[in-house]
Amino acid sequence: MNFCGLLLRLLPTVLSTALVFACDQLYAQPLDPTKVTWSELHYEASKLFITVNSEIKFDLIDSKQTMTQLHHVPAIPAKMPTAPSTVKLTLDTHYLSVNSNIQTWMNPNTELLQRTSNYTGSKRYYRLIRYTPDGSYTIRGNFHRKKNSSAEEPELSPPQFIPLPDLQPNPIIISDSEALFYRLNQLEQLKIGDEIKMYLLDSGSIVEVILKTEAFESLKVDFAERKSTGKQQFKQSINVAKLRLTAFPYHVDEQQAKDKRAVNIRFLGIDGDVDIYFDPIRKIIVQISGDLKYVGRVDIRLAKVVYR
Question: In terms of Cα–Cα distance, which of 232, 219, 228 is closest to 279?
């Protein structure tokens, strides 16, 4: 099974899946996007002849502007902004001969409104997912060159509806994987044994994703910090929380849920279990480690952080 993107997807091989974040004691207080400390996170990984560069941007935009960017599906009650401001996350990734641009619009509580994926290079296609209260509409596009023009535009398919599994009596919030960077930035504290639960919606099925705090340890880091006061290189060992990411089939029925068997997922292009190293002081992910297809064991490290 394929997975989720910079954090649950930094690499373009990740499918256009969504994460569903459950209410968790670590997030008992409402999320406040104005408290997010960063505006850009840059990550790099290099092994042999392969280099991966990913950049995620955080923007807080006026919901009136959001309305002009959301796709309108005729006669369909799609989800709309519920607050004066909307969170927009943009992920750009360069991996081998593929470039990807993924944009997500969500309410401050991480409820996903829309997601677009644009792939160029050796892999070329476009996908838009517009979320509704009971599912989502997907529009796909293949690129073609316009006559007498060097520009290329995607030829869009008719909307395809994918229903959301019946989760009653346990309704949950559908969100995109990049929201994890936003949510982790709101954490007040972590201790060994803490679990953050999420739910991956993939082709109509739900996978329960668990981030468990396994240890606190020292990790060597080397990244640039850019603030309004200037830029500096931060290179030393810091104390981080090591989180292990695993996934299981999700069942609303408690009896079915007793038979939990781990499933394979792909996170940031990394297969299977993933180790995430989180700086609890800056509240930023500084490293993601696991097995990358064609490469083997890799460490995706923070290279630069730009503060708001």
Answer: 219
Strands (DSSP E) found in the chain: 18-21, 38-47, 50-62, 85-95, 98-106, 112-121, 125-132, 135-145, 152-156, 160-163, 173-175, 195-202, 205-227, 230-249, 266-267, 270-279, 284-292, 296-307
> pLDDT truncated to tens, each residue of the chain (308 aa)?
333 343 344 333 333 344 444 444 344 457 899 999 999 999 998 877 778 888 999 999 999 999 999 998 777 789 999 999 999 999 998 877 778 899 999 999 888 899 998 888 766 888 899 988 888 888 888 776 666 666 666 677 888 888 877 665 566 777 777 788 888 888 888 889 988 877 766 666 677 778 899 999 999 999 999 998 999 999 999 999 999 888 777 665 554 544 555 555 555 555 567 899 999 999 999 998 887 766 678 888 999 999 98
